[in-house]
Specification:
alpha/beta; 6-stranded mixed beta sheet; 4-stranded parallel beta sheet; 15% strand
Length: 323
């Protein structure tokens, strides 16, 4: 069997794949990603930018009035808890790229009462880093890695008007330019994208915008177990596999999820300790998975705390099963 070279540094893993895998659709490869939805929420997701949350920023306007009241009265207690449970990545965006992450879930929002058009990433609170400066950094990284392909999933869009959407999309086009893969491209393989000079599949979770702009791909389905332990998460994933894989790109989220009652009753825990606690069981299950076009196969596989846990190398190594 032809081998994929293993390396601690996965920043060029796509360009180093065996020849046979260059003509397999990206939707049938195993692709490492970062996750969404770690604290139980009725809607929304979190993003790769949770490593730079601004603990002093306001709560998102979508947070409940009760939680907003508690945060106002017990600010000194709620903010450390928010930071501990909302932080799901400990390395920055370039380090995530270098680690091998190729799918990024980006929750974009406009701050309430902000008179500027500046956009931020969010997970309960806002980030220090702005969206545009971060994506410009990503583009610079792509310039020096011309054979690496990334998938950006922009979603949530809290507080964004039609005007802000159009301004953001214009900025995205201006940043990535010819690197954007058009939606009408039917053969999305590494070899084909290299020939076209495309490096970015841009998913945008706003149907009206995807109608108006041919560069925007529709929302990517995310399989989210919404469970606080490994066994329930795995049971959910196995049930989904029995139903068959979705069309196109889709994400299997290996992130654990807790609600605020769990957080309040487990003050000694954090998302990091919980993730590490169940990692061995999740790792065992992950090693048994396979990419491909068949119904039980997986595509994008996302996890928390990239860098602390060897998720990327495990996911990338699954592609050996296609040889």
């Amino acid at each position: 069997m032809e081998q994929i070279r293993e390396d601690d540094n996965q920043e060029d893993w796509m360009s180093r794949l065996p020849e046979k895998l260059l003509d397999i659709p990206l939707t049938n490869l195993a692709i490492p990603g970062e996750t969404m939805k770690t604290i139980g929420e009725s809607k929304g997701s979190h993003d790769a930018m949770s490593y730079c949350l601004d603990i002093n920023s306001p709560l998102l306007r979508s947070e409940s009035d009760t939680f907003r009241l508690l945060d106002g009265v017990f600010y000194c207690f709620t903010r450390p808890f928010i930071y501990r449970w909302a932080t799901t990545q400990v390395i920055n965006i370039v380090e995530q790229l270098q680690a091998g992450i190729r799918y990024f879930d980006l929750r974009v929002a406009h701050k309430q009462y902000d008179t500027s058009s500046e956009l931020y990433f969010t997970h309960i609170i806002y980030t220090h880093a702005t969206v545009i400066e971060t994506l410009e950094t990503v583009n610079l990284w792509l310039e020096s890695h011309p054979k690496e392909i990334i998938i950006l999933a922009c979603r949530n869009f809290e507080g964004m008007s039609d005007e802000l959407h159009e301004g953001f999309i214009y900025a995205l086009k201006n940043i990535f330019r010819s690197k954007l893969c058009p939606v009408n491209e039917t053969l999305v393989t590494l070899r084909r994208l290299w020939a076209l000079g495309c490096q970015v599949v841009l998913s945008y979770e706003d149907p009206q915008s995807t109608i108006r702009h041919k560069e925007l791909w529709p929302a990517i389905q995310y399989l989210w177990a919404n469970k606080p332990n490994a066994e329930e998460l795995i049971q959910y994933m196995e049930c989904k596999k029995q139903l068959g894989r979705p069309e196109g790109f889709f994400v299997a989220g290996l992130n654990l999820t807790t609600d605020r009652c769990f957080i309040a009753s487990n003050p000694q825990e954090s998302l990091k300790t919980l993730t590490k606690k169940y990692w061995n069981r999740v790792q065992e299950w992950l090693k048994e998975q396979k990419p491909g076009a068949e119904p039980p196969c997986l595509n994008i596989i996302a996890g928390d705390f990239i860098g602390l846990l060897p998720i990327c190398s495990l996911v990338i190594s699954l592609n050996k099963k296609l040889l």
